[in-house]
Design brief:
43% helix; 232 residues; 19% strand; alpha/beta; disordered C terminus
Length: 232
Amino acid sequence: MTESSNETNQKTKSDPNLLSSRFRGFYPVVIDVETAGFNAKTDALLEIAATTLKMDENGVLHRDKTIHFHVEPFEGANIEQAAIEFNGIDPFNPLRGAVSESDALKEICKEIRKGQKAAGCNRSVIVAHNAAFDHGFVMAAIERINYKRIPFHPFVTFDTASFAALSLGHTVLAEACKRAGLGFDNREAHSAKYDTEKTADLFCYMVNRWKDLGGWPIPEVADVGESEKESE
């Protein structure tokens, strides 16, 4: 006798070693942006990278694919001199090979939706270090290009700075990576691709460490009513 499709789907949803079961059905995508300031509405997005994640048969989270673009400042964008001196990006250098916000965001969202569907997840969630910043710039860029097929949750994020403060006692990405034994090359810092992949490694480390310590899967808790009956 074969299982019904509903029974199969129910088992799939309840399997703790599937990505679709791990984060309330969310598909975690690690994002890092480099910008020409702090205001997502007015300041230029200059670089963006997104790293997708995968889970093996043992429920261990790994880095999967990275998508990376240098981005042309949108028309009328503000560029703060202090910001580009800090990140070392020349927004108008033709050797950057920059593409429009529209091309970058559409390609990233298309790849994320494919990964989300393959993983059986119902929505994507941005994972980032100080995630409110990256989420704000990504959503502002998506709004500017009037893109409708947004894979990301409109406000939920996973902030690795907060997770690292709890699990490693530090909020700075470089220091948290070092404490996790992942290393960090400060010469590569402020490259969206490098920072995204290090953030992905850090997120995977913390998620997997929590699992190793017995925090996942969550132990089943007996129904209170049933527990009371058993104690009578």
